[in-house]
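non-specific serine/threonine protein kinase (Ictalurus punctatus), 510 aa
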Amino acid sequence: MRTLSMAVFKQQKVEDFYENGEELGSGQFAIVKRCKEKSTGVEYAAKFIKKRQSRASRRGVRREEIEREVNILQQLQHPNIISLHDVYENRTDVVLILELVSGGELFDFLAQKESLSEEEATEFLKQILDGVHYLHSKKIAHFDLKPENIMLLDKNVPLPRIKIIDFGLAHKIEDGVEFKNIFGTPEFVAPEIVNYEPLGLPADMWSIGVITYILLSGASPFLGESKQETMANISAVSYEFDEEFFSSTSELAKSFIRQLLTKDTRKRLTIEGALNHPWIKLHRTHPHSVFLWFLFLKNHEHVEDTNLVQWQSGPCQLKTKRLKEYTIHSHCSIPPNNTYVNFERFARVMEDISVIDSGLEEVAQKRESLQEDVEALLSIYNEKETWYKEESSSVGQGLSRLRYEFRKAEARRKDLQEDIKATEASLDVISSRYLERQAQLSRLSEELNTELRWLQELMSSLNGEGENGGRCSTPDLNNQVNKALKEMLSRTCGEESHCSSQTDNTESFF
């Protein structure tokens, strides 16, 4: 096999180097044709893979998936695995120039036989296991092992060589890197694929178990009426060794199948365990075959003696009628093989469900945290509510007292307003009277001033006569005048104090 640069495809026209021949097979996005290299005359198989033109498109295969298949094939060089010779690319296709595998499918070859012994079956299974062992030693999982992908290099030889083909779903398994996907052919996929769990090399071992079951019986262990029923049977590991199909099958063969069709990947046979299983290693020509058989019987007490008799009398001959019917039915009812049709939408849905599940887990955790917070808040609220009720009762009582005091103050305010109104009315009356008295006082003051001026004039005239004639003395005259004034004031002012005060002033005046 030529060494190719990773993900670098030749851009020349493939027709310039190879002559295309008949079509050998086709799928939804791939066509395989026989071709001949012009420079050497060697025949190959040209696999034309339609490229996806845009990310939004559902037509064709994504370039990264084609690159992954090419990169894996570049690492492989084994007698039981198809080899890659060259890679070309044009605007619409990537063309893989592969080793020509012209012997057809293994199951078609075996179905043409009248009968099949377990020893013959194990010879072919041993080749399959050798090829898978090589893959697994490189940490590569095929993920699409099924009868259509188990081919014969040339069927016209005594012991045809097995070739494992179609690495469109193969992945390199990296330690510590979780890988999940929904792909493969439903009839042959492992429970971890159906349940969208982490995937690894054990998925291939489950598929080998299904292939072995069909090879020995012509019946499919999990195939249902619909894809959903098939997946449900796989998830539940719902199968049995029907006596109608396995009446001539040895317990060693059944043990081999049971240990492969195990849901727990940790308990499932590894490729090394399968190669070392007594049924694979046990042949009549094996020098320790009798010892291996009795060792198996010792560890499986439920095995009937008839199996030992069968083994001692010669290899079990399995009728291939049902295997023939299975191959005819599978070719008629199953669409052409297409390794790239891998439940893309279902895978995306499962990824979304996984994201939703993780989101729901976070929501659940946050809900628990919120529930605790809510309970704490409720406890605080209840305490606060009790405190508020007590405070409300106390405040209510205080408000009642305030309302009572307010009503009393309001009544007093009304009384005061009435008193103010009465006082204002009294003041109006007093003011009116005051004005009247002031007017009277003004008049009296004018009259008094008039009388005083008269008296002054009179006194002046009397003083002049006394000096001239000497008839009366001044003191006697003053007394008489004062007496006369008092009488006059008494008549004029009555009992008013203001007039009395004015009289005192007049007396002092004299």
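The longest helix spans residues 344-469. The chain is about 55% helix and 10% strand. ok done for today
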